[in-house]
Amino acid sequence: MSEPVVPATRAVGTLGYVETRIGDRTELAVVGDLDLTTIELLITAAARVISDGPSHLVLNLAGVPFMDSTGLVALVRIRRMCEEVGCSLGLAELGRFVVDLVTRTGLHAYLNTIEPVADAL
Description:
By secondary structure, the protein is of the alpha/beta class. Helices cover 36% and strands 31% of the residues. β4, α2 and β5 form a beta-alpha-beta unit.
């Protein structure tokens, strides 16, 4: 079932997401830049989803045109939150810029990049 877009807005940045649950798996389709002004919004949304106890969380990043190093830090934090409760994490539908950043930093294996999102759910 899909829930409506839940916008999370700050004066300096905007990030939106759509949450989809299929059984004990959850997808967060993220829209907007992941940078210093928006990462806490993503971390908060992911923490809420993780607290619901899914076995697997997929972050669909097709709607993320830009991510800086703080965005990478947020993804690592979310991965660690998942590990603490036994939830797996996968990143799906990464755009070219995000793929390049995740690959250049060597985090692609740790963050479990997958394509396409249907393979993750």
